[in-house]
Specification:
about 325 residues; alpha/beta; 7-stranded mixed sheet; 13 helices; about 40% helix
């Protein structure tokens, strides 16, 4: 997936022996990686220690951490049966009890204690890496995620593989999700195996309490009644309960020509730009090679969505559930 699951040792935040300016820089680098490429797995036995470590940071760094937590890119994990918390770790094998974490972020003292040596990456086991707090952006795990975030989606890739590789973890991590795809509604109305159908059904299965917004064009001779029927049919088939609210807007095609020059799915602030739009999730497989670009929401994205929503004002171009 585009997001790495990681856990952080609360003691790593203090960075003993590091100059204040460098400490602040290290916090910024860590938080950049977290909010762009990661989901923090916050275990119950470490939660209070981490919150206390944040309280003890200098004000500027404390504000950065507080702002990061407000993005809610983390998951509370109930105490694992064999995980006793970072402060009880005294062997590599203990870290393996973190479960499905892919990157354990540690302070230098613990890395020395666990005798990882000098050769990186520091592997805990076949699926988990350890790295120091001050160089999380240089870890093997982060480098792998960054490479995935720019990977071409190849022709004929099955839709299930595309969802798992690019969208599934984002759908689990984020609740506010937006699709901007000029042709998604047209394809939903015309093709029973369309990418929008796959996207919505997958989101309903993997998401929790999702608020979905769809912006797509009213093209050709499609009527608003036909669009409503297609949306009612699609959402009427959902059974998993992952989507709690959906708005769909279909401005005239001319607004997409002017205001939305690219197609994307946005999960919170994470934007997945897709040259072929949701066609990458067509049930028959990816129709042609699709460049994939992952970046954070910016002013252009905000302006695009605002313009499309304004262009679809009025009951004839809007649909919602419930």
């Amino acid at each position: 997936g585009v997001l790495a699951r990681f856990a952080v040792d609360p003691d790593s935040l203090s960075q003993p022996g590091v100059r204040p300016r460098q400490k602040d820089s290290n916090h910024r680098r860590f938080l950049h990686v977290w909010l762009r490429y990661g989901i923090l797995m916050l275990h119950a036995r470490d939660r209070d220690d981490l919150l206390q470590a944040i309280k003890e940071l200098p004000q500027s760094s404390r504000k950065l951490w507080k702002s990061a937590f407000e993005e809610r890119r983390y998951r509370q994990v109930d105490a694992l049966s064999d995980w006793r918390g970072f402060r009880a770790v005294d062997a590599k094998e203990d870290l393996a009890q973190l479960g499905n974490v892919e990157l354990a972020v540690l302070d230098d003292e613990m890395l020395d204690l666990l005798e990882f040596g000098e050769t990186t990456p520091f592997w805990v086991n076949e699926t988990m890496e350890a790295c120091p707090y001050h160089s999380v952006d240089q870890s093997h795990c982060t480098s792998t995620i960054v490479a995935k975030a720019e990977r071409m989606i190849p022709k004929n890739e099955p839709c299930d593989a595309v969802w798992a590789a690019h969208f599934q973890r984002l759908s689990i991590a984020e609740k506010s999700i937006v699709v901007v795809d000029r042709y998604a509604i047209k394809e939903l109305c015309r093709y029973p195996r369309s990418g929008l159908r796959t996207f919505v059904k997958s989101l309903d299965r993997d998401g929790v309490g999702v608020n979905l917004t769809i912006y797509s064009a009213q093209v050709d001779d499609l009527t608003s009644a036909q669009i409503r029927t297609a949306l009612n049919d699609l959402f009427g088939d959902l059974t998993e309960g992952g989507i709690s609210l959906c708005h769909a807007y279909w401005p005239d095609d001319s607004h997409f020509a002017r205001d939305a020059h690219w197609r994307y799915a946005r999960f919170g602030d994470a934007v997945c730009q897709l040259d072929t739009g949701l066609q990458v999730l067509d049930e028959g497989g990816v129709p042609r090679n699709c460049p994939f670009k992952y970046h954070l929401r910016d002013r252009l994205v905000r302006n695009t969505e605002n313009a499309l929503r304004d262009a679809a004002l009025g009951p004839d171009r809007h649909w919602q559930i419930p």
